[in-house]
UniProtKB/TrEMBL annotation:
<dbReference type="GO" id="GO:0005886">
    <property type="term" value="C:plasma membrane"/>
</dbReference>
<comment type="function">
    <text>Carrier protein involved in proton-driven auxin influx. Mediates the formation of auxin gradient from developing leaves (site of auxin biosynthesis) to tips by contributing to the loading of auxin in vascular tissues and facilitating acropetal (base to tip) auxin transport within inner tissues of the root apex, and basipetal (tip to base) auxin transport within outer tissues of the root apex. May be involved in lateral roots and nodules formation.</text>
</comment>
<keyword id="KW-1003">Cell membrane</keyword>
<dbReference type="GO" id="GO:0012505">
    <property type="term" value="C:endomembrane system"/>
</dbReference>
<keyword id="KW-0769">Symport</keyword>
<dbReference type="InterPro" id="IPR013057">
    <property type="entry name" value="AA_transpt_TM"/>
</dbReference>
<keyword id="KW-0812">Transmembrane</keyword>
<dbReference type="GO" id="GO:0006865">
    <property type="term" value="P:amino acid transport"/>
</dbReference>
<dbReference type="GO" id="GO:0015293">
    <property type="term" value="F:symporter activity"/>
</dbReference>
<dbReference type="Pfam" id="PF01490">
    <property type="entry name" value="Aa_trans"/>
</dbReference>
<keyword id="KW-1133">Transmembrane helix</keyword>
<comment type="similarity">
    <text>Belongs to the amino acid/polyamine transporter 2 family. Amino acid/auxin permease (AAAP) (TC 2.A.18.1) subfamily.</text>
</comment>
<dbReference type="GO" id="GO:0009734">
    <property type="term" value="P:auxin-activated signaling pathway"/>
</dbReference>
<keyword id="KW-0029">Amino-acid transport</keyword>
<keyword id="KW-0813">Transport</keyword>
<comment type="similarity">
    <text>Belongs to the amino acid/polyamine transporter 2 family. Amino acid/auxin permease (AAAP) (TC 2.A.18.2) subfamily.</text>
</comment>
<keyword id="KW-0472">Membrane</keyword>
Length: 489
């Protein structure tokens, strides 16, 4: 009997060993296709992350930089731009370290900016972050709709000027162009997830380099044509504008430059597309360095050469300045590239907002087929059918329609850009990353490091308040001569 029990125990041991081996094999197979959180394997790299960041950063903001430098002058303009780039890079490295809570390799993932706040700070700050972040994303969608219509009008106007020999003022209404952009965005908004946008980001990045290079080339050409560099050390002179307007414009310029560097609101979402090892924080640190360096170089070149070309008369949108109507075909290429880029940038910024609303709707109504059920729609030429979700389609369509209508009501490019930059820069790019870093590393209150971080945060808060005030003043001034849906440009 003892021998029988021993034999049975041996058989059981063999069976357990076989079972354990099979589990290991299954786990190894699963790890090839899924990450540690059970989601499909992430495939993002330094270069795809950089493409996402460049798509988000080198947007319509680059076009207002010549105007911004014109308000600040040759000394303060470039200095402020370099300062913003350094602050953005530093705080972005702090923020990227918050993607995982605890261990940077195996800690719990935070899929969104709000989740990172919840894990590190909690309480009221989570709601405050969500409010600021998603309002800013909503505003960016409006800003990009306005910018795209300006570029489309510039194409039409340059061709009109060319045909009439400059005799026709070529005034037009931007509403039809905003509606056209909105229709395109309704279509692209049906792309379900952020990680499926990598190809659109790469196309958009190429377009951003295209129009930035053209703007740079035209600026250099204009400087050569003028046989000299325009502008002054202190910016636009009092007399050309009043003292009060000079101050407000200088403040608005800070907002324009801040907007040109705003991508922290989607940094965590971009980081969630990156594969590991190495740790996602290391990859994002490299991607941030590459992106901020490249964009700052482009910004300095485009902004400075634009100012050198036009001086005090630098236009709010570099490529729509009167001096650039020749060669008109090059202007058309540049503005077409802007429109294509903004199609992609709109999606990069709005996808986190889409995901937030859809996730919360699914959580609140888990049994609703309208919200949760996917309908498979076969598409000729594609291997996999498109998964149509009724709630997603309707809500995203309504979102695009809303941003388009608001853009038609407030088509003030510079004022809106400055206001968005001011409202988003301090809380999202500086305050929350600094506070999370202090909490994560348990930095003692009133220590030297704590004081330095708080001084950085307070300085950026003051800059943001000044920029917001200047931008509001600019929008109020524009509203004096504006009629909703009727004003032609």
């Amino acid at each position: 009997m003892f021998e029988k029990v021993a034999a049975n125990n041996n058989n059981n041991n063999i069976n357990h060993q076989t079972f354990d081996v099979s589990v290991d094999v299954n786990q190894q197979e699963a790890s090839k296709f899924f990450d540690d959180d059970g989601r499909p394997k992430r495939t993002g790299t330094v270069w795809t992350a950089s493409a996402h960041i460049i798509t988000a950063v080198i947007g319509s903001g680059v076009l207002s930089l010549a105007w911004a430098i014109a308000q600040l002058g040759w000394i303060a303009g470039p200095a402020v731009m370099i300062l913003f780039s350094m602050v953005t890079y530093y705080t972005s490295t702090l923020l990227s370290a918050c993607y995982r809570t605890g261990d940077p390799i195996s800690g719990k993932r935070n899929y969104t900016y709000m989740e990172a706040i919840r894990s590190n700070l909690g309480g009221l700050k989570v709601k405050l972050c969500g409010l600021v972040q998603y309002l800013n994303l909503f505003g960016v969608a409006i800003g990009y709709t306005i910018a795209s219509s300006i570029s489309m009008m510039a194409i039409k106007r340059s061709n009109c000027f060319y045909k009439s020999g400059g005799k026709n003022p070529c005034k037009m209404n931007g509403n039809i162009y905003m509606i056209s952009f909105g229709i395109v965005e309704i279509i692209f908004s049906q792309i379900p997830d952020f990680d499926q946008l990598w190809w659109l980001s790469i196309v958009a990045s190429v377009m951003s380099f295209t129009y930035s290079l053209i703007g740079l080339a035209l600026g250099i050409g204009k400087v050569v044509e003028n046989k000299g560099v325009k502008g002054s050390l202190t910016g636009i002179t009092v007399g050309t504008v009043s003292e009060t307007k000079k101050v407000w414009r200088s403040f608005q310029a800070l907002g324009d430059i801040a907007f040109a560097y705003s991508y922290s609101i989607i940094l965590i979402e971009i980081q969630d597309t990156v594969k590991s090892p190495p740790s996602e924080a290391k990859t994002m640190k490299k991607a941030t360095l590459v992106s901020v360096t490249v964009t700052t170089l482009f910004y300095m070149l485009c902004g400075c050469f634009g100012y050198a070309a036009f001086g005090d008369e630098s236009p709010g949108n570099l490529l729509t300045g009167f001096g650039f109507y020749n060669p008109y075909w090059l202007l058309d290429i540049a503005n077409a590239a802007i429109v294509i880029h903004l199609v992609g940038a709109y999606q990069v910024f709005t996808q986190p907002l889409f995901a937030f609303v859809e996730k919360n709707a699914a959580k609140r109504f888990p049994n609703s087929d309208f919200i949760n059920k996917d309908i498979e729609v076969p598409i000729p030429g594609l291997k996999n059918p498109y998964k149509l979700n009724l709630f997603r389609s309707i809500w995203r369509t309504m979102f695009v329609i809303t941003t388009t209508v608001i853009s038609m009501l407030l088509p003030f490019f510079n004022g809106i850009v400055g206001l968005l930059g001011a409202l988003g820069f301090w809380p999202l790019t500086v305050y929350f990353p600094v506070e999370m870093y202090i909490s994560q590393h348990r930095i003692q209150k009133w220590s030297t490091k704590w004081m330095c971080l708080q001084m950085l945060s307070i300085a950026c808060l003051i800059i943001s308040i000044a920029a917001a005030a200047g931008s509001v003043a600019g929008v109020v001034n524009d509203l004096k001569s504006y009629k909703p849906f009727k004003t032609d440009y």
